[in-house]
Amino acid sequence: MNYWNLLGIEPTDDIRLIKRAYADKLKIFHPEEDPDEFSKLQEAYRQALSQAETAVVREAYGEPFRQLSWQQLRQARWADAPPSPREPAAGRFMELLTSLCADAARRSDPGEWQRLLKGEEWPLSLAPELHDEVLRLLKEQLPLPYEAWTGCNELFAWIEPDKLDELFDNDELIAMLEMLEYGGNWLSSRVRGDVLLGVRVCDALLSRGRQYTAMRNTEKAIACYDRIVALFGEVDAFRYKVVQAAADRLLCVKKLGDADREGEAREELWRIMCRAELRPGSDWREARRSVAEDWLSYILGMRDAEADPAEIISLCDELLALFDAAENPAILARVLFNKGVCYHLLGDDERQRAAYDELLRRFESTEYPDVQLYVAEALYNQGCIGERQGDEQGAIEFYTRVIDRFLGSIMQGLGSKEQDIAEVVVDAMGNLSALYVSLGRMEEAIALSEQAIERFGKSGHTEIRATVSSIMVNQGRIYAGLEKTEQALAAYNQVIDKFLKSKHETIRLNVAWALRNKALCCAELDRLEEAIAAGSQVAEQFENSKDGQILWVVSLALGRMATHYEELERWEEAIAACDRLINKFAGTDGLPTAPPSPDDEEEDILLEVARAMCNKSLYCDKAKQPEAGIAVGNLAIEWFIESDNEQIRKLVILTMERLAGHYIALSQWQEAIAVCKLAESWFGDSDNEEIRASLADIWLRQGDCYYEVGWYKDADAAYNKASKGHRRATTHYVKEAWRMVKEGWRSLW
Fold first, then answer.
1. From CA 711, how far away is CA 581, in angstroms rounded?
2. pLDDT per residue over 248-277, tens digit each?
3. How many C-beta atoms lie closer than 10 Å to residue 451's C-beta?
4. Single pTM value for the model
5. Which residue segment(s) compose the domain that 682 sits in?
6. Does 151 lie in the same domain as 204?
7. Which residues are in the J domain (predicted)?
C-alpha cells in the first residue's frame, strides 16, 4: 500500500503537512460507510508519521548502523550448504519441538525449553535443514519465553543475539509484549532502550488502537494505549507519544459513559502532560500542538460521522482546557467554529452566536489565512442566524462585514484557503442580494449582484461558479419583478450561454430555471415561438435528471409550453405537450395507467401533472377530440380525486366539469350525470369559492342532461342548485336555467 498516495501528498518529513492531509481525507472516508478505506487511511497516516518521526530521531541521534536482515544473514551463512535428505536427528528434534509447542503449560515453562535445547547435543547439520521450519513453528505459538528464542537462535543462528526483535513484524512484536510473564521482559527492555525500535512498537500500538476505535472495539483500543503508557511512561524520549496515547485513551473512555473512569483517565492524562512538560505554558509548544491537532482531527472525524453534537461540544471544551489551544490561533478558531456548528445542529442559536462572537472577538482582524477562513464563515453564519430569527438588519450587518472584510483582498487564482474564503464571500453577496429584494431594495440588490458577477464571474472554482449562477438567475428575477423584461431576458441568456454544459447539479438547476424563465420573458414580449423553443430546450436538456427540483422545473416548462400553443390555437401541439408531461412523470409510454409517485420534495410535480390533465381536457374540446378528453378526464379522477392538496382538488373538479361536457358532446347523458353526481359527492361540502363555482357549472350541465333524458323534476332541482351557487353562475346561466325549466314543465302538460 502506497500510503503517500492514500494521503494525497508527496513523501515528506513535515508532520504538520501529514496531519493536514489526514484531516482532509477524513472528510471523504467515513468509518461506518467505508470502514476498509478508513482503516487503510489510518494505517497510511501512522506509517507516514512514523517515517517522519524516525527522520527526526535520526537527525537527533545519528544514522543507526545498517543491519542485514536475518534472511540475508541466513542466505549468506548457508549459501554453500548442499541439499540433503532430512537426518534422523532432525526428525527427532522436530518431533520433540512439535510436542512441546502443542502443550500450553509446557511451552510457557522456560525449563522445558532449556531441557529441549540444552539436554542433547544437536548436530550442526540441523541448522540449514530446519532453519525456516522452526522459526515458522515458533511464530505460530506467540508469545514464548525468552529462553525459547535465545536457545533456538543459538542453535540456528537466525540473527545476532541482541537483535532478536528484528525477527518479528509489528503485529508479532505486539503479541510478544502482551504477556510479560512469557519472557516479555527482555523485549520490554529492548523497546525502552532502543529509540528506533521503540518508535516502531509505539506507532504499531497507536495504529492498532485507532483501528480498534474505528471498529468500535473500545476496550481493546484502551488496552493498546495502556500498553504504551506502561512501556514508555518513564522514558523521556517517548513523552510526546505517551501523551498521544493517554489523550486517545481518554477519548475512548468517554465513549463508555462511565463518569468515574472518565475522571480517572482525565487526571492521568493531566499527570502525564505535567510529567512530560506538555502542560499549557511549557516550552514544548510544538509537541502539545501536535497532540491537540490529533484531538481536533478526531473531533472533525466525529462531526463528519454525524456523532452527537453535544458530545462533540464536550470534546471541544476538553481540548481547550487540556491543551490551551489559544496558543495556536488555527486550532482555537477551528474549535470555536465547530462548537458553533454543533450548537446549530442542536437548534441553540444563542450559544451558536456566543461561540462565533468569541471567535470574532479574538481573530476578526487576523491576517493568518488558516484563521481568516473561520472568521469569514463565522460572520456568514451570524448573518444566517439573523435571517432565521427575522433580524434583517442584523443579517445585513454581518453579510456586509464579510464582504467589506475580505472582498478587497481576494484575487483570482489564489490557493485553496483563499478560494474557500472567496466561496464564503460570494455566498454572503448572494444572500444579501436576496435579502435586499425581500425588503424591496431592488436597486441595491441589482448593484450587489452585478458586483458579484463582475468579481467572481470568471472564477474556475466549482462552488463559486454555482453561487454566481444562482446570483445571475436571481438578478433576472429582480428585473422581471421590476417589469424590465429585456434586462431579465439578457440575464437569463447570460446564464444559459455561460453554464449550459456544466455537470454540477446546482448549476444545472439554475440553467433549467434560466431557460424556463426565458420562456416567460419571451411570452411577455409576444415572442411565443422563442418561448416554445426555450421550454422545449428545458425538457430535452434535463428530462433525464434524477434531481427532484430540476424535474419540477421541467414539469413547469412543459406545462407552460402547452399554454403557449394554446395562445397560438395549435391544439394538437398543446395536447402533445401535455402528454409529454404526463407520460414523463408517470414513467409509461402512451396513455399512462398508473399515477406518478415522486418523493415528498417533488410533490409540486403532482400539481403540474394534474394541471396538464385539466388543460388537455380543454384542448381536446377545442380539437374536437371528445374521446381523448374522456380518457384523460377519467384518469385524472382515478389519480387525484382523493388528494388533500387544495390546488389539485380545484383542478380535479374543473376537469370533471369538462369531462361531463365531453360526454354531453357524444350524447352520453347517463355517463355525464354519473360524473356530476361523483363531483357533488366529493366536493359538495367544500367551502372553497373556486370549487363552489365549478360545482355550479357542473349542476348546470347536470340539469342539461336531465332535461335531455326527460327527467324534468331532476333538471329543475339541478338548475335550482346552479342558480344558488357561486357568483360565476351568472345571470345568463340563471335565466337560461329557468327558461329550460319552464319549457320542461310545459312539455309535461
1. 41
2. 888 788 778 788 888 888 778 777 777 666
3. 15
4. 0.63
5. 667-749
6. no
7. 2-65
